[in-house]
Amino acid sequence: MNEKATVLVVDDSATNIQVLAGILKNDYLVKVANSGQRCLDILTAGPLPDLLLLDIDMPDMDGYEVCRRVKADSDMSKIPIIFVTGMDSDDNEEYGLTLGAVDYITKPIRPAIVQARVKTQVMLKKQSDKLTFLAFHDQLTSVYNRYFMLEVAGQKVARTLRDGHSLSLLLLDIDHFKQVNDQHGHLVGDQVLVAMAQKLMEFNRKDDLVARFGGEEFIVLLDFCDKDSAVKKAEILRQAIEDLMPAGLKVTVSIGIAELRSGKESFNDMLKRADSALYQAKEQGRNRVVVAID
Questions:
Q1: Mean pLDDT for the chain?
Q2: pTM of the predicted model, to two decimals?
C-alpha cells in the first residue's frame, strides 16, 4: 500500500501528456498513451493502473468509448477514470459521469486542480483496494479466507461438472497445534500459521486456490488435478512442512484428499469426504496423507 500509485495519462496531444506527466511525476508512477486503442492495449497487457486520466476528443476512439469499454470489463471496471478535456459544457460533464467516470477536469490544465483531484481519487482507490483485500483474505496469513473459498469453490465445482475436467481438494490440519499455543504462546502459534501459509503459496499454481479455513486448518483447491496427482502434491507439501521448522519448532500436518465425483456432487459433499479422510489421517498417527473413499 506504500508503493507509488500508477496513473495512466491518455491524450492524443504530446504537449498535454508532457504537462500532465510533469505535474504528477514526483508523486506517482506515470504511464502514457497517445490514443484510445493504445490505452486499451496497455490495460489489457497489465498491470492495471490505479487511475486513468482520459482525454475525450481523440481521433481513433474517443474517451467516452474508452470509458465504456473499461467499465464493461470485469477486470478493468474498478479503475477510477477522470476525464481531462476541453469539452466544458454541463452536458458533456454529466454524460461522462453517467458512463462511470469519477471526476471531470476541464482544460486549460491547472496543476493545483489536477494534483488535488488525482490525490483524492488515488486515496479512495487505495482504501477500496484495502477493504476488498481484507474482505477476501485472512488477516493473519494473507491467504484467502473461508468466505472467499466458499464463494469461489461453488463456481469451480460447477465449471468442473460442466467441462468434465478434474478437481481435487486438500484439507490440511496442523498436528497438535494446541500444544504449540499452550507451550510456546499464541505469538509463536501465529508464526507457525504464517509460515504454513507461505509454504502452501509456494506450491500454488495459477489455477489453485489456498485458503485458511479456520484455526489451524487450510484448504488447497487443485483445479485440473485428479486424486493421484493430488496425492503426489500432498506428499511433497507434507514433507516440506515437516522440514520447515517455523520458529525453531518441528511441525507436521495431516492431509485429507477428495476428488470431485462426476454427477451432481457439491463442494460441501467433497469437503465432507476430505474431512473424513483427514480424521482417518489423525487416527492413523498424524503426519500422513489419506485419500477419501470414492
A1: 93
A2: 0.73
